[in-house]
UniProtKB/TrEMBL annotation:
PANTHER family: 2,3-DIKETO-L-GULONATE TRAP TRANSPORTER SMALL PERMEASE PROTEIN YIAM, TRAP TRANSPORTER SMALL PERMEASE PROTEIN. Part of the tripartite ATP-independent periplasmic (TRAP) transport system. The chain crosses the membrane at residues 7-33, 45-66, 87-107, 127-145. This is TRAP transporter small permease protein. It comes from Salinicola rhizosphaerae. It is found in: Cell inner membrane. Keywords: Cell inner membrane, Cell membrane, Membrane, Transmembrane, Transmembrane helix, Transport.
Length: 168
């Protein structure tokens, strides 16, 4: 199970990086188009890629300890209280993100059913960019439940072990 989850987080991170590369490609295409006297409008496409990259990168960043955390209170607590607070935060966050994933999934499904199109020059079906957001939220929820489980079993979370800015 551990390998599967780690592969899921890595795949999500790789997809996030891929969407960042697509942003770079679209910008280069715009520059090349202007240099050759043409107009290539990839602003909307870049926005879709940025949303997908942001949401798909959430779980990978969590596992790497790259999320911003306010450790002032947590670091001042004794170990047993720190573990309880971290567990509460993971469980609470998983609940909120699970709900957001459900709402995003419902919204994505409705966009697909109604045939919603983007309002820009390229009338793209809106469900396509919304899938990246929904998948990112689902994977992040899984990662938070995974971290909660690690805290319950081992007493520490992966994001704490990998935190580059930790004072410990």
């Amino acid at each position: 199970m551990r390998r599967t989850l780690d592969a899921l987080y890595l795949t999500s991170g790789v997809l996030a990086a891929l969407f960042l590369m697509l942003i770079a490609v679209s910008i280069l295409a715009q520059i090349a188009g202007r240099a050759m006297g043409g107009v290539i409008d990839a602003t909307e496409f870049s926005g879709f890629c940025m949303a997908a990259s942001t949401f798909l990168g959430l779980a990978y960043a969590l596992r790497g300890g790259a999320h911003v955390r306010v450790g002032l209170l947590i670091e001042a607590l004794p170990a047993h209280w720190r573990r309880r607070l971290e567990s509460f935060v993971c469980a609470f966050s998983a609940g909120i993100l699970g709900w957001l994933a459900w709402c995003a999934g419902t919204y994505t499904l409705q966009s697909y059913e109604f045939g919603d199109l983007s309002p820009g020059l390229i009338a793209a079906p809106l469900w396509i960019p919304q899938v990246g957001m929904t998948l990112g939220l689902i994977v992040m929820t899984i990662a938070l439940v995974d971290e909660f489980w690690r805290l319950a079993r081992h007493g520490h979370a992966t994001y704490i072990d990998n935190d580059a800015g930790s004072l410990e």
